[in-house]
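Lab notebook, bench 4. The sequencing result for the construct came back, and we need a structural model before the next group meeting so we can plan mutations. Quick request posted to the team channel:

Model the 3D structure of this chain.
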Amino acid sequence: MRNKLVGSFLSLILAIFIIATNTLFAQQGTYNKKNLEKEKKEKLAKIRQNDLILKEISQKKVNNLSKLHVVREQMNVQKKFIQTLKEQIADIDENLNKKQKILQELQAELKALKKEYASMIYALAKTHSAYKKMLYLFSSESFNQLYKRLLYLAQYQEARKRQVQGIQKLSQEIEAERKEQEKMRAEKQALLNEKLGITQSLKNLEESNSLLVKQLSAEELKLKAEIDKDKKALAQLDQAISQMVQRELVPIPSSDSQKDKETNIEIPSPTQLTPKKGNFVKGKLLFPVRKGFVAIPFGKYEHPVLQGVTIESNGIEIQTQPNEPVYAVADGKVTAIAKIPGMVGQVIMIQHGSFFSVYAKVHNIRVGIGQYVKGGQCLAYVVIDEQGDSKLQLQLWHQHEKLNPEVWLAPR
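Done. Here's the predicted structure in token form:
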């Protein structure tokens, strides 16, 4: 009888351990699920944002190259979204396998507990009638032995109660596990359906990409002419920025604005008070627009259509929506507002100590030269070019060195 009592106690301990392990596993699974769900929401927001940009471009006679940029960015985001869905499905499969093993352990333990309980009841029926209990007690050789036998009977009765409670708790845990698995299977099916839909959307985008490349290939002369035009405008912008940076870094004692003889661009006179670097920190600068993506990267890159044609960019160009607000990437002082010949819109330069941020292709400017601005403050709005396209050009400089904005901007 005493061996049965010990065995019953050990079974209860094992059952509690299985339940505790399952609880810990469930907490870890919830953490992974939350992270993947967060990634999914972020990518889905980008897909919807790009859809709006693509819709805006499609409604206007925007050049095919801009459409190609949007289509390829959307393809890239959708591929990442599909990968996130795959990770979510794999996570559910892994959790289902673990939960199935736990369920089998719980069922085996419940079976063992019920068997032990049945044996206990059978033994109790055989040996613990009222008469036999009295005989068992009064056959004690001493009062001390009588007391111990009374305690033993009480403990045995308590063990029976714990056994019943253990069986009930295990039964509830098994039922909860079954419901949780049903819920996870339903979530998996929803993800599979979502993956099927986005895969079809990606296929449609790949077809659009092929069609746009074919159309652009037939416009080679026009594309080369646009590249030459952009190079000239960017060269003038580069020259103007260099001169403005030089004037701010090497102050000239003058209170009047001057015009550059070659570009005829008005360059404000430098001030004696130089703004501090402040929150201009690598990897933490604010993205200059709320909606959009980097369509043209920093540095040298291969033309997306013309073979053997390499283009060099001194900054990044962000594809966005028409009249999208443009915000300062960090605290600083507006040191120049200029118009570059051959380039649509205007240019704003902000100084951040020995760093400078330049925002090109903007209009409806909301700040003035000499004004101090906070990071995230609206400076202007993205202009719509003659083809209906809207791209913000962002350049970052450290003295006379051009910086890669994507490295300095905070991750989105």
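The domain at 222-408 is CATH 2.70.70.10 (Glucose Permease (Domain IIA)).
Will bring this to the meeting.
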